[in-house]
Amino acid sequence: MTTPVALALAVGGLIVGVVFGFLIARGRARREERRPTGPTVAELLERLVRSSNNGVVVLNKFGDMVLHNPRAYELGLVKVNQADPRARKAAEQVVETDEPMEIDLSPLEARGRQPEAVLGEVRPLGDGFTVVEAVDHSEAIRLEAVRRDFVANVSHELKTPVGAIALLTEAVLDAAEDTEEVRRFGGKILRESTRLGQLVTELIALSRLQGAERLPDLNVVEVDAVVREALGRTTLSAESAEITITTDSASGLLIEGDRTLMVTALSNLLENAVAYSPAGSPVSISRRLVDGKVEIAVTDRGIGIAEDEQQRVFERFYRADKARSRATGGTGLGLAIVKHVAANHGGSVGLWSRPGTGSTFTLRIPAHIPAEPAAPVKQAPPASRPEKTPERTPRLVATGQESPDHGGNL
């Protein structure tokens, strides 16, 4: 039988337990309230590694992977769930020396569009762990190669007319008493100096266009006016080559951009078509609106361009037919300028060509769509006047002729 003392002790212990449990629960609740919401530091670090643009691999002292990110696969740092042997060997040396080191992790075999130049750095993390971080330098290597080629090409292109002018000048001095010879050599000097001036002018234009952002100040430009001015610039060379340039009817299309640059681009396409077409063959210009872009196509029936050369014709100084280009005085910069003018206008330039049939170059520039005028607001009649039912009047509907399709696709 339970004594009063024992019962009192039991009740007291129960009360103490309840109070103690309440205090513990309240303390735990306060700690949970103070705990910040969101990911932990470890989770953030894992996200950082996985989203890094560099390939990251963590190795243990046995060379096994502990952690890696998807970029490591793309750069070839990880293959078949194993780190590159070069990285593992470098990691062993880093563990021994406890000093970071750089290694070349570039692919041993070039396959497709994979990175060409990958540089890795191996750093010690302590306790036998190392981290290998790989960086893709392929773009920098390609840009450096392009820069070297550009300097070499410019040097060669400038050297040719300068050397010719020097030789012709010596010939003039030697034949100073022969009027006919002086006139003949003088004409050649004029042609070479003109070619040199054209080359320098186009180099300056290309240097301004290349790498520039889309034009900040865009003006409304009439496409028909651009075509007329480009035709005016090309008339002399077309007549000399006995080539007739035809155009479609006026389109009334508008674009947003720089008129001078657009005329330069279209003139270059026309000059290119005339230079690479046989005498008596036709060259045509057509324009139309397609999916919000104005397409200006220049079509010729010239020698055409092989498929493997169609991407390279927009490179600086590249010539599909070097002998013909030399004969016509081309600089090899015209199509490069066209490409950059189109890009700076937010557009592009396309090419269709077939050897022996001809070529069609198409400029695609975003069209300017005039804003529709706002409908006039009708004012309510005064309340004092009785409302009258308006009489119905006939409505006039204007009809216009659609712009013709391109006749350029051969």
Automatic annotation (TrEMBL):
It is an enzyme of class 2 (transferase). One of its GO terms (molecular function) is ATP binding. SUPFAM superfamilies: ATPase domain of HSP90 chaperone/DNA topoisomerase II/histidine kinase (SSF55874), Homodimeric domain of signal transducing histidine kinase (SSF47384). Its EC number is 2.7.13.3. It catalyses: ATP + protein L-histidine = ADP + protein N-phospho-L-histidine. Residues 153-369 form the Histidine kinase domain. Residues 385-394 have a biased composition (Basic and acidic residues). The chain crosses the membrane at residues 6-25. GO terms for cellular component: plasma membrane. SMART domains: HATPase_c, HisKA. Keywords: ATP-binding, Cell membrane, Kinase, Membrane, Nucleotide-binding, Phosphoprotein, Transferase, Transmembrane, Transmembrane helix, Two-component regulatory system. InterPro entries: BphY/WalK/GraS-like (IPR050351), HATPase_C_sf (IPR036890), HATPase_dom (IPR003594), His_kinase_dom (IPR005467), HisK_dim/P_dom (IPR003661), HisK_dim/P_sf (IPR036097), Sig_transdc_His_kin-like_C (IPR004358). Residues 371-410 are annotated as: Disordered. It is found in: Cell membrane. It comes from the Bacteria. GO terms for biological process: cellular response to phosphate starvation. PANTHER family: PHOSPHATE REGULON SENSOR PROTEIN PHOR (PTHR45453:SF1). This is Sensor-like histidine kinase SenX3.
